[in-house]
Amino acid sequence: MNQKEIDFYKRLKEELDTTTKFPTVYLFKFIVPVSEEKVLQIKTSFAGTNAQIVTKASATGKFNSVSVKVMMPSSQSVIEKYVELSAIDGIISL
Asked: 4, 5, 6, 55 - which has most CB atoms within 10 Å?
């Protein structure tokens, strides 16, 4: 992870700690190039968490949006999930 990413996640954690009381249901949103494999990687990452996962194809059919509502115990757990999923090629976290 480069310094820019470290700084980003540090700021995000501070913002979450300031604005959110944990544990809470957190909404993750991702965009990935159309690929069942990439969507499956996201779904697998949340396996066993009772997450509500909704996927939707873009109007152009080139991307899938993936929304995940899941109970997260802490801001650190949110950061860890973003870092874990950043390994998926082409993923954009919103």
From this structure: 55
Tell me the pTM: 0.93
For the segment 17-59, what is each residue's pLDDT rounded down to a tens digit?
Answer: 999 999 999 999 999 999 999 999 999 999 999 999 999 999 9
Distances (CA, A) of 32 to 6, 10, 48, 50: 22, 24, 22, 22
Task: Provide the 3-class DSSP secondary structure of residue 44.
Answer: helix
Identity of residue 10:
K
Q: What's the per-residue H, E or C state across 59-70?
A: CCCCEEEEEEEE
Nearest C-alpha neighbor of 89 from the set 15, 30, 44: 30
C-alpha torsion angle, residues 30, 79, 23, 46 (rounded to 10): 50
Handedness of CA 7, 9, 11, 14 (dihedral sign): negative
